[in-house]
Write a structure and sequence with these properties.
Layout (H helix, E strand, L loop, with lengths): L2 E2 L19 H6 L8 E4 L32 H4 L8 H10 L3 E2 L7 E5 L5 E3 L9 E2 L2 E2 L11 H15 L2
Parallel strand pairs: 1-3
Antiparallel strand pairs: 2-4, 4-5, 6-7
């Protein structure tokens, strides 16, 4: 299992009702289960070719400006508008479960329904393509591992080594 900063499921649960029975899922389960919504991506180009040979590396520039692992980040502060919390972030570092940075990831700008309805996506709605369990950036290369996660993981390992 791995985690991606800001990654959301492909279709949000709170899209509006566009008339009820446009697809089988909406007809049977109700408008909230409509599968007709399609993402429109903010990134100009997502390569179709994923580099299956690329290996995730730690973000070379260090922590990004809005890293979830920064002190006082919305995630660490428990802001309900952000996924995850301080305990979850700590658990990922303790277990070594990969946590990927959002830098360079494909992002959903809006959701569009065949009826013409449009809904803006939440800020930070990332939807990268995956190869196995590894998300890939818009350039087709493997996602960066979060530098904040890596620093915390190393610090915990060093602390364990001092015992």
């Amino acid at each position: 299992m791995s985690h991606l900063c800001g990654f959301d499921e492909p279709t949000p649960d709170d899209l509006p009702d566009t008339g009820g029975t446009c697809c089988y899922s909406a007809a049977v389960y109700g408008p909230h289960r409509c599968t007709c919504w399609r993402p429109v991506y903010a990134d100009p180009v997502q390569t179709d070719e994923l580099n299956d040979e690329s290996v995730p590396q730690v973000r070379p520039e260090g922590m990004c400006g809005d890293c979830a692992y920064r002190p006082g980040s919305p995630e660490k502060a428990g802001d309900p508008a952000y996924r995850g919390d301080a305990d979850e972030l700590e658990g990922l570092a303790i277990t070594g479960t990969p946590f990927y940075c959002h830098d360079g990831m494909r992002r959903v700008a809006k959701w569009v329904h065949p009826t013409g309805a449009e809904v803006p996506a939440l800020d930070g709605a990332y939807a990268p393509p995956f190869h196995g369990a590894v998300p890939h950036r818009v350039d087709g290369e493997a996602a960066y591992l979060c530098a904040g996660w890596n620093a915390r993981r190393r610090a915990l390992s060093a602390k364990d080594g001092d015992r």
